[in-house]
Amino acid sequence: MDEEYDAIVLGTGLKECIISGMLSVSGKKVLHMDRNKYYGGESASITPLEELFTKYEAPAPNESYGRGRDWNVDLIPKFLMANGQLVKLLIHTGVTRYLEFKSVEGSYVYKGGKISKVPVDEREALASDLMGMFEKRRFKNFLVFVQDYREDDPKTWKDVDPNNTNMAQVYEKFGLDKNTADFTGHALALHRDDEYLAKPCYDTIRRIKLYSDSLARYGKSPYLYPMYGLGELPQGFARLSAIYGGTYMLDKPIDEIVYDESGKVVGVKSGGEMARCKQLYCDPTYVPDRVEKVSKVVRCVCLMDHPIPNTKDALSTQIIIPQKQVNRNSDIYISMVSYTHQVAAKGWFIAMVSTTVETNNPEAEIKPALDLLGPIKQKFLTVTDFYTPKEDGRDSQVFISKSYDATTHFETTCLDVLDVYRRGTGEDFDFSKVRHDLGDEEQ
Amino acid sequence: MTTLKIPEQKVILCGEYGVGKSSLFRRFTSNMYTTATDRQSTLGLDHYSKRYHVDGKDLKLQLWDTGGMERVASITSSYYKFADAAILVFSLDSPESFNMVSQHLLDIVSYAENAKIYLCGNKSDLKSLIQVTDNDMAAFCEQCQTLVAGTFKSSCKTGEGVNEMFSHIAMQLVESNRSKFELEKLTENNGLQVRHFEDSEDASKCSC
What we know:
- With 443 residues, chain A is of the alpha/beta class.
- Helix content of chain A is 28%, strand content 24%.
- Chain A has 3 domains: 4-43 and 231-292 and 387-432, FAD/NAD(P)-binding domain; 57-105 and 293-386, Guanine Nucleotide Dissociation Inhibitor, domain 2 (2-Layer Sandwich), CATH 3.30.519; 118-218, Guanine Nucleotide Dissociation Inhibitor, domain 1, CATH 1.10.405.
- Chains A and B meet through helix 3, strand 6, helix 9 and strand 10 of A and strand 2 of B.
């Protein structure tokens, strides 16, 4: 440990593991430490089940829950968009070879107290019960427009200038009513609130395209989920980093981060030793004085012995409750996975409800979501603070990631990672630096 | 255009730092040996597939190396996932590395419960320095009852016993998975791997 590194990374959450992998791949000498005994930090999947119950100080699970080590419960629920940033990162870094995925079976949206399948193509739109007959035609026209839209080809714009037209105007142009706009913006474009309506439409069009391109890849929904839980993701990137020379140390309490007189980081002290470094990358929990709390996220893990009602017994599903439907400012998300993903014992389901906290009673805020789930055997509620760094790290050379937000997919996670990498190295990550000949080829 | 997929079995190397896991890996991939001074530990080694022909059946062994993570930290649990076989490596001249085998065995049993487990005493060329005897190995297997499916001795330096071990493992895996392979041919595979869409599955090239 008494050595000099190009970079020390603290915390083995997903963001830090991706960054560590990217730095090692770029030829940097990396030391990666975690205060916990296990990989993953907040993005770990908790196993065995007893561990989860202990964590929430609940009495031990009875035998109906099956074998404890058949469970791998995520604390931060998210799905991967099949055509999204994280999948691109996984493919380009080759980390996909460590993982296996399953396609999420259904994607639903909440309207007027019940849930409906999110329509994504013309055929589904015509069959959907979300819209009346005439509205369906208008929505179909809108979908066709989005599909044909090319930002670099004004001929496809149909008089919609991507930079000077806001999304509300686009909805108006196609005559879409408030309800349709609601599920389009929240369940297809995955906006968390309604601020997007007044912004240039290109972002929303891109998001809808991402949704439908993702859908086209593997089937019934645009989402993927890794077998054995999300905790496999940071581990995959940690292995990548190790293969490229990164050194890993777990169970290392960080005693002090050391700075020189100009305030620039010079090293990290742990257990009486000091590792020196030029740069430090970490999650907010390692540098409480350099981050600020901007909001709170509530997450509720629900263990159930049945699928979510009205989802055609899907073994995995996502439900989005658009904010307006329940008089809120931010959407409520439900994501459910089950024993088929090796995250629960046979016959068990794990539903996760999450949203940004808006009141003093977060549990009451998620009630509309809990009501959709049917009987819940066991429920664990957490409210976590959402931190962002106070500085960009240029002076201190300390580069801090944001906490994990309430969204149910990894798009914002990846944007943050790429941003941290850019701040730290002054350049965008060059995917071509990753060698693709790490095994895998036949003799 | 359909190509018959050759069943692939994941085999992982486990054991203490410095017992020669990466040397076994190198022997497996290129039949080469590099001395300690020539290499920089386990940099850049991931996994490698090699085709075996057993009993009229084709099988690919996909051998995985630890990536050197065991040097200071523990190996990630995902390393063990989906493993069909695990080779517990220790060094015949190091009783300490042999005593730690039970610890690694525990990890395998908890994270890869369906893996067949093999015990491999490496560095058999060190003849006069050998401290772990055949009796010790037999006693260990007895203690573990039926957990250990086979024991081997190898020398990565001379190459002795290495190919024999992998061929033997390939044979056992073909035997024990005969019905499973037949079934996989008929049914669709469970999980999916994300990859470039342009990528077509490697059609079987000419084998070794």
